[in-house]
Amino acid sequence: MTTPAPITPDVLTLPRKLPEGGPVNIIGLTREQLHDALIAAGTEPRQAKMRVGQIWQWVYHWGTRDFAAMTNLAKDYRRFLADHFTITLPEVVTRQISADGTRKYLLRIAGGHEVETVHIPEQDRGTLCISSQVGCTLTCSFCHTGTQVLVRNLTAAEIVGQVMLARDDLGEWPVPGAPRDETRLISNVVLMGMGEPLYNFDNVRDAMRVVMDNEGIALGRRRITLSTSGVVPEIARTAREIGCLLAVSLHATTDAVRDRLVPINKRWNIAALLDALRAYPGLSNSERITFEYVMLQGVNDSKEDAHRLVELIRGIPAKINLIPFNEWPGAPYRRSSGNRIHAFADIIHDAGYPSPIRTPRGEDIMAACGQLKSATERARKSRAEIAVAAGLEPIVNQVQRAWRHGTGNPDAETAPSDAGRPAPDRG
Questions:
Q1: Between 3.20.20.70, 3.40.1080.10, 3.40.190.10, 2.40.30.10, what CATH number should domain 90-418 receive?
Q2: With 50 as the cut, is the pLDDT of residue 338 above it?
Q3: Roughly how many angstroms between the first and final C-alpha of the chain, as a whole number?
Q4: How far is the C-alpha of 357 from the C-alpha of 369, rounded, in Å?
Q5: Taking 90 as the threshold, does the pLDDT of residue 199 lie above it?
Q6: Which residues contact 75 (CB under 8 A, 6 or more apart)?
Q7: Global pTM value
Q8: Which residues are catalytic?
Q9: When you count CB atoms within 10 A of the terminal residue's CB, does the N or C end of the chain come out lower?
Q10: Is the pLDDT of residue 183 over 90?
Q11: What class does CATH assign to 28-86?
């Protein structure tokens, strides 16, 4: 008898308690919060709104970190700010650059914990994948981050700080007096890094309000995508209070399989999740929901799965991102073959849904989807230990036995030698 994959109690996702007293970190404060903080520190209420606008532009448009450099403020007010406030970002521990140009940053935050952030350059965009928690509460069995226990939520400052540090490294802040460059090296932000964003809702919401503000970093709401594993009660709230695009980690077409892959399904099953998505405020073809579906050999990649998926999402404006499984040390799964992924994609495409196959990026530096896991928290478990902890040993053994006996692909369309090869991008 196997042990079911656990669902971490929500009590462990309570926000981090910050130390009382000392300078207030400006990073991550919304305009309203900054306004209140300035008044609390002694700024005249009638001047506070103007001061917020001035400080905001220096910090988020120009990327300034020194109050003394804010030259349109009086010198005595600059000293006042330095006495009461700070501009503090996470610390960059390491930066790795993949052969394909992907950059992975290991960042140290308060308490000595570490998170990872990834920048993915493409021909027509640059996507920054940011984290919302140290570790994760969901224990999804195919995800490397899910083998790391949840440590704590990130603060809004630590979330915004990831964007700012990436802009530092990419040299994206404008230079006063220089010709304006409209090129955005970070044109999109995706909350698809470590953690479940909807279990850290307030900090994620406040951070995205800062990132979206059009007088600072100025990324529009349709340039931001929040990925959730299916925290149903927070889905409608996401539309109302953040307004960004939504991606859902589905990964299975039956509750039996999704219970094993995404244990939160035991709390809110596929039917409950899809009901919430059909009611998602503002849902339309121009703002359709993205379903993420990782392709696992012999687990969720059959033609029957593809047809079931089409029926499940019928009536929901949607795109299906098919993700070739990105392997990590001890992973209890293998990637579906290229032929199997393409056959799956064709069924979905023929039903009228876009079905791009994601090209794996940054695999050589463990920066691909599902591979993030901070170095100090990394536990090198064996494949068997991870499989048993996630209740997956029978599936793993079945697949491994099938390959040993030469019957690995259920549909026998592809030789075993194709397994593990990256599938080319369809779109």
A1: 3.20.20.70
A2: yes
A3: 43
A4: 13
A5: yes
A6: none
A7: 0.81
A8: 116, 369
A9: N
A10: no
A11: mainly alpha
